[in-house]
Amino acid sequence: MDIIHTKEAFLEGQLLLIDKPLTWTSFQVVNKMRWAIRKEFDIKKIKVGHAGTLDPLATGLMLICTGRMTKQIAQFMGMHKTYTGSFRLGATTPSYDLETSVSDPKPTDHITAKMLEEVRTGFLGNIQQKPPLYAAIKKDGKRLYTLARAGKTTEIPSREVQITNFELTETNVPDVSFSVSCSKGTYIRSLAHDFGQKLGCGAHLTSLKRTAIGSYPLSAALTLDAFLHSLEAKS
Does 97 participate in catalysis according to the annotation? Predict the structure, then answer.
C-alpha cells in the first residue's frame, strides 16, 4: 500500500488499508490513527473514518479514509466483503461469539457431513437475518451492545442480506472452518448462530478475519503498528 506521508496528502484524502489487531475496536483504530496523524503533522483537526466495523474479536481488513476521502465512505461500505473464520457447534453465547460466556451445551454426535452440506446451501443467496443483540447498530438512539451489556433486551427486525459464497473449508465437529462472501450489513456472528439453530445444537463464532472488501485484499494492508512506524520514519 502506497502512502504519501505529507500533511497535504492526508488532508486532501487518502485511502489506507489496515489489518485490525485482535481485541481492538474499530473506533480505537480510527482514534489512534487520527491522533498519530495530527501529532506528526501538527494538524489541529482532520477527518478520519472507517468503511465498515469489525468486532473486537475479529481481525483483518479495514478501509480507513482521511480528509476529503471520507466523503466516499458510503461507497466503500456498499462493497461485498469476504471473510474466513471458524465456529463451534454444540453451544451458544449471548453475543454469538466469545465475548460472552458459553451456555446451553448440546450434543453434536448426530451431525453428519450431509447435514452440514444441506444447511450450508440453505444460506446461499438472499436470506433474512437478524443482527446480534451485541451489535454496533442503533435502536432508539442507543447502540445495541450498550443495551445488551446493561441486561436489556430489545426486539430486532430481520433484514435481507446476500451470501454470494459460503464454503465449509474444514470440518472437525464440533469445530467448523469456513469462508464466506457477502453483502453489506451481513453479520457473520449471526450466520454462525443461525447455522447452529438449523442443526438444532447451537453454535457460536470462535474466530473471524476479513480478507477482502470489494477488490481491496488484506494482503495489501499494513498492520496498525507498521502504519504508525511509517509515520515516525518520515520525521
Answer: no
